Amino acid sequence: xxxxxxxxxxxxxxxxxxxxxxxxxxxxxxxxxxxxxxxxxxxxxxxxxxxxxxxxxxxxxxxxxxxxxxxxxxxxxxxxxxxxxxxxxxxxxxxxx
Length: 97
Ligand code: SF4
Hints:
Elements: H1 8-13, E1 16-18, E2 26-28, H2 36-44, E3 50-52, E4 58-60, H3 70-74, E5 81-83, E6 91-93
Antiparallel strand pairs: 1-6, 2-5, 3-4
Bound molecules: iron/sulfur cluster.
């Protein structure tokens, strides 16, 4: 099958994700008011893993994370994100490299 002309959303749909139940590889540290950096992840994460809850705190559901490292870099200075690679055999499985 030719991938010429394939949209990025269609390519991303080819990826698979193996959930490590109960062991998320990324966590948001407890906070009352998120920093602007942490809040920006709600829109910056390409996998839409981050969201704002009703209390205005940032939450993450790491299922579907593409391990791009954006959140790790964005919050490196604030320390609000605890970032690790998934355990072996879990996480994203890229089809197109
Ligand atoms: Fe989102 Fe990338 Fe962070 Fe994964 S590593 S949660 S895809 S910003």
